[in-house]
Every structure is written in C-alpha cells, then in structure tokens.
Amino acid sequence: MAVAKVIEIYSSSDKSVEDAVRSGLKKASGSVKNIRGAWIKETKVQVDGEGNITEWRVAMKVTFVVD
User: Fold this and answer.
1) Is 49 left (phi over 0), alpha (psi -120 to 50) or beta?
2) From CA 46, how far away is CA 2, in angstroms rounded?
3) In 3D, which of 65, 66, 61 has the Cα closest to residue 8?
4) Low-confidence stretches of the chain (pLDDT beneath 50)
5) Cα-atom radius of gyration of the chain, to the nearest Å?
6) CB 20 within 8 A of CB 38
C-alpha cells in the first residue's frame, strides 16, 4: 500500500509559467523525494508601470509518495 502526501509550494520566473513550474519542482526535489505530480493552483504576474510582465508566479500542490 502506498501513502501519498501533498505540499503547497510557490515559485517564480522572469521567463514563463513553465519555467516557474520547472524551477519550483527542481528546487522541491532537492529535499522531497518521490515526487509524482503537481497541480497548478494559481498563476499570477507582476507588471511594470507600462503593463509589461516582469515576473510569472505560480502556486502549486505537489504530490509525493512517502517511503
């Protein structure tokens, strides 16, 4: 029988949403093993005074299997 746990993490990137997700999962995998998936809960952007996107931010729930 497998037991899974879910944690919530936040990540950002100045390139794209995909890059924010990738960097968040890579950082989390440094201390959390057996990551099996992620659900992108929220996507936000930071903008400058002219409406240009300066940063992409994601909130995600990450699922991993407990040993």
Assistant:
1) alpha
2) 39
3) 61
4) none
5) 14
6) no
Q: Which residues of 45-60 are buried (b: 16+ CB within 10 A; e: fewer)?
A: eeeeeeeeeeebbbbb
Cβ-Cβ contacts under 8 Å for 35 (sequence gap 6 or more): 25, 28, 29, 62, 63, 64
CA distance linking residue 50 with residue 65, whole number of Å: 44
Dihedral sign for Cα atoms in the order 22, 26, 28, 34: positive
Amino acid, res. 39: W
pLDDT digits (tens, 9 = 90+) for 52-64: 999 999 999 999 9
Yes or no: say if 11 and 58 are a contact pair by the CB < 8 Å rule: yes
pLDDT score of 28: 97
Query: What pLDDT does 67 receive?
Result: 85
Q: Give yes or no for a contact between 29 and 63, defined as CB atoms under 8 angstroms apart.
A: no
